[in-house]
Design goal:
Chain lengths: ~120, ~110
C-alpha cells in the first residue's frame, strides 16, 4: 500500500523568494517518487522523478527535490520563484515504476507567486 | 514522449445526459488510463483501457457508469453516463511507455448542472 500527503493546499510566495512544497509518502516497498505540475487548462507535466539513484534530483525549470528516507519526505524546492511558476503541483508515489497504473497522487498544492 | 489530445477540453452538461470524452495519442501504446480529479481532490484512477479486451475498472467505478472503448492502439473514449452534479470533475487520459514516466492529456473539465 502507498499514500502521499502534501502539506498545504495553497502556498503563496513572493517573486524571487524560495519555493518549498512539502510531500510525505508512505510505501511498503522502496518507492519511486514524482512531482508533476499542472498549469491552468493544461495536463500534467513531469517536473522530476526519483528512481533510487541520487537522492537529490534536479528537474525542469530550476526545480529540485531531495529524497529523505528517514523522514519519508520528497519536498520540492526552487531557490527563486518566477511568476510563471504559478500552477498546481502534485506529488506522486509508485511502488515499481512510473506506470500510470501504479501512481498514487497527493491532493495537490496550488502555488501562487506574488509580484 | 507521447503527445495526447483530449476532446472536449471542457463542457457544461445537463444532469441525466451522457458525455463521451475522446483521447488520441500520437503513437501506439498498449495501455491507456482514465483518471478523475474531483474539485480540490487528488487524481483517482478510474480504469485501464486495453486494446482488444474489456477495460479494467478500479474499486468504486463501474462499466455502466463509465463505459470505455479502445478500438485501436492510439485511441480511447470514456463516457460519463447519466450524469449528476457529483460527476463534475476533470477527467484525464494518460499513457505510459516502456521505461518512461506517465504522460497526461490536457484534461476535460466537466460541469454538470
Amino acid at each position: 500500500a502507498q499514500s502521499v500527503t502534501q502539506l498545504g493546499s495553497h502556498v503563496s510566495v513572493s517573486e524571487g523568494a524560495l519555493v518549498l512544497l512539502r510531500c510525505n509518502y508512505s510505501s511498503s516497498v522502496p518507492p519511486y517518487l514524482f512531482w508533476y505540475v499542472q498549469y491552468p487548462n493544461q495536463g500534467l507535466q513531469l517536473l522530476l522523478k526519483y528512481t533510487s539513484a541520487a537522492t537529490l534530483v534536479k528537474g525542469i525549470n530550476g526545480f529540485e527535490a531531495e529524497f529523505k528516507k528517514s523522514e519519508t519526505s520528497f519536498h520540492l524546492t526552487k531557490p527563486s520563484a518566477h511568476m510563471s511558476d504559478a500552477a498546481e503541483y502534485f506529488c506522486a508515489v509508485s511502488a515499481r515504476s512510473g506506470s500510470a497504473r501504479q501512481l498514487t497522487f497527493g491532493s495537490g498544492t496550488q502555488l501562487t507567486v506574488l509580484p | 514522449s507521447a503527445v495526447i489530445s483530449q476532446k472536449p477540453s471542457r463542457d457544461i452538461c445537463q444532469r441525466g445526459t451522457s458525455l463521451t470524452i475522446q483521447c488520441q495519442v500520437d503513437s501506439q501504446v498498449t495501455m491507456m488510463f482514465w483518471y478523475r480529479q474531483q474539485p480540490g481532490q487528488s487524481l483517482t484512477l478510474i480504469a485501464t483501457a486495453n486494446q482488444g479486451s474489456e477495460a479494467t475498472y478500479e474499486s468504486g467505478f463501474v462499466i455502466d457508469k463509465f463505459p470505455i472503448s479502445r478500438p485501436n492502439l492510439t485511441f480511447s473514449t470514456l463516457t460519463v453516463s447519466n450524469m449528476s452534479p457529483e460527476d463534475s470533475s476533470i477527467y484525464l487520459c494518460s499513457v505510459d511507455q516502456p521505461g518512461a514516466e506517465a504522460f497526461f492529456g490536457q484534461g476535460t473539465r466537466l460541469t454538470v448542472v
